[in-house]
User: Which sequence fits this backbone?
């Protein structure tokens, strides 16, 4: 029997004592995190993304439906088979972002980022990123990106 170890960068950061790790950038933006299906319900990873997010965003706000109760964005197989339904699912999820007054939605699923951006209405002013994209933007804004050598 082959034993497979699953690891993503949140688990890796957690193994490196994330609680004692200080990120060099922070934001005052109000940020929320909708749990992606694969990372959350399928892998059981809920706290690591929140720990990272709270390190950069003290104004983290939890969506009403979160962790195991989180709704699917509709971006996976649903989008391919039932496009109109998938847009409705994403818009319902995005309404939750507005409900908590978040300015930024962070997620770890590239499919969610793509689908949320497609479903987002013009009147919705919040931004949508993966955590890594957002961290890179913060580093660029502060000029720290050249210091850490990220390209």
Assistant:
């Amino acid at each position: 029997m082959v034993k497979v170890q699953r690891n993503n960068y949140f688990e890796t950061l957690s193994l490196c004592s994330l609680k004692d790790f200080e990120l060099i950038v922070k934001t005052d933006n109000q940020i929320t995190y909708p749990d992606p299906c694969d990372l959350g319900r399928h892998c059981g990873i809920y706290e690591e993304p929140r720990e990272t997010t709270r390190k950069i965003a003290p104004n983290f706000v939890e969506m009403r439906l979160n962790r195991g109760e989180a709704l699917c964005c509709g971006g996976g197989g649903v989008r391919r088979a039932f496009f109109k339904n998938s847009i409705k699912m994403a818009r319902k999820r995005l309404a939750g972002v507005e409900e908590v007054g978040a300015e930024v939605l962070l997620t770890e699923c590239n499919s969610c980022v793509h689908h949320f951006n497609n479903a987002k209405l013009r009147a919705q002013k919040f931004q949508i990123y993966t955590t890594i994209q957002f961290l890179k933007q913060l580093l660029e804004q502060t000029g720290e990106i050249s210091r850490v050598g990220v390209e």
The domain at 25-148 is CATH 3.40.50 (Rossmann fold). The radius of gyration is 16 Å. Residues 1-6, 11-18 have pLDDT under 50 and may be disordered.
